[in-house]
Amino acid sequence: MGEPEANHRQLGLFSATAAVIATMIGAGIWGTTGGFAFKLGTDTAVLLVWLFCGLLALTGALSLGELGGMMPRAGGCYIFTRHVYGPT
Fold it and tell me: For the segment 54-82, what is each residue's pLDDT rounded down to a tens digit?
């Protein structure tokens, strides 16, 4: 076991933005919107639900970003969980 490899940050702004958009939107947007739009009844309600869910997703993203800034090592959520609960 040698020295751990250094992190190589290779994602630029465009690549990271494209990855986030692809992950958040995905294909489910086309299948689920009609169902809950029908149940909500108004366009305003649909937009408010989308806004609320977007804000909820933003809080999760900002939390993970803050954790990544505090612990800048490869491993992501595994590293954060290991820091809280210790090695198993």
Answer: 899 899 989 988 988 888 888 888 888 88
Average pLDDT of the chain?
A: 83
The alpha carbon dihedral of 38, 51, 78, 20 has a sign of: positive
Secondary structure class of 24 (helix, strand, coil)? helix
Distance CA 23, CA 57 (A): 11
Given a contact cutoff of 8 angstroms between Cβ atoms, the answer to whether 13 and 22 are in contact is no
> CB-hemisphere CA count at 13 Å for 53?
10
Are 40 and 46 contacting, i.e. CB atoms less than 8 angstroms apart?
yes
20 closest CA partner among 64, 75, 78, 50? 64
pLDDT tens digits along 2-12: 677 776 767 78
Report domain extents, the chain. Answer: 13-85
